[in-house]
Amino acid sequence: MTFLALDVGNTRLKWALYDAPRVGARLLAHGAQFLENIEKLAEGDWHALPAPQWVVGCIVAGDAVKRRVQEQLELWDVAPQWVVSSLSEAGVINGYDHPARLGSDRWVAMIGARQRLLARGPARPCVVVMVGTAVTVEAIDAEGRFLGGIILPGHGIMLRALESGTAGLHVPTGDVRDFPTNTSDALTSGGTFAIAGAVQRMVENLQRHCGEPPVVFMTGGAGWKMAPSMSTPCELVDSLIFDGLLEIASRRVG
Ligand SMILES: Nc1ncnc2c1ncn2[C@@H]1O[C@H](COP(=O)(O)OP(=O)(O)OP(=O)(O)O)[C@@H](O)[C@H]1O
Ligand SMILES: CC(C)(CO)[C@@H](O)C(=O)NCCC(=O)O
Ligand SMILES: [K+]
């Protein structure tokens, strides 16, 4: 009864194989592949896996990438189900003007966060931070309503934009400092403060709106780099998207 969860971002495809499509299932194997190496999956990492009975994923890369992923999935006799953001699913209500236009990775991460929050206590407002190619910061009230969220460039895009838009900024990665005194540290700290500051602002917005401090969850490939520099308390949960995919799959499989 194995279940394969897929998270196809703009930089990497992340996958996780579980022994069943339910929250709390046992993780059997997992991995990540840069999008340019998708063609290696069927003959590489996936070759010796037990065939999954279900495949559910979220994808924010373009249609060409989706076709390349589906080609690799032909290794098994299973049709992938791609999550599309809807008006409501798994206890989260979508406040986006056009619900289907919300990135499915954002939707799935919010469902994972909400499930995690409710599993351990009373409902609270919640901020969900994803630090990937792009950074997103979402606000959910205590009733599970997604109020709205922001999108900003990730570390890599910020640095590349500065490098290509200036004459004098081509330097190695620096350290995060309160008061940077060289170009490398100034760039690295600038990107980090931009993300931490955006999160702090959304936490303040949601606290003002709901009248109580929110729980903050953070996920994404570069989350561990951001965690030490956050100015508000924040829980790093690497598996937030997979938690959401398990929750969605358990409801669909029934
Ligand atoms: N300190 C840093 N300096 C420069 N670039 C960074 C830094 N940290 C992360 N990045 C970039 O941030 C981006 C996101 O990192 P990563 O691929 O690990 O996340 P991801 O969650 O897999 O992304 P996605 O889901 O969007 O594919 C990458 O483009 C990576 O090159
Ligand atoms: C914002 C990203 C790139 C984050 O991965 C993705 O969720 C996306 O492409 N979203 C579509 C636009 C939106 O969410 O409003
Ligand atoms: K992502």
UniProtKB/TrEMBL annotation:
Record GO cellular component, one term: cytoplasm
Organism: Hydrogenophaga taeniospiralis CCUG 15921
Family assignment from sequence similarity: Belongs to the type III pantothenate kinase family.
One Gene Ontology biological process: coenzyme A biosynthetic process
Name of the featured protein: Type III pantothenate kinase
NCBIfam families xref list: baf
Active site positions: D105
Taxon lineage: Bacteria, Pseudomonadati, Pseudomonadota, Betaproteobacteria, Burkholderiales
Binding site for ATP: D7, V8, G9, N10, T11, R12, L13, K14, T133
Gene3D superfamilies: 3.30.420.40
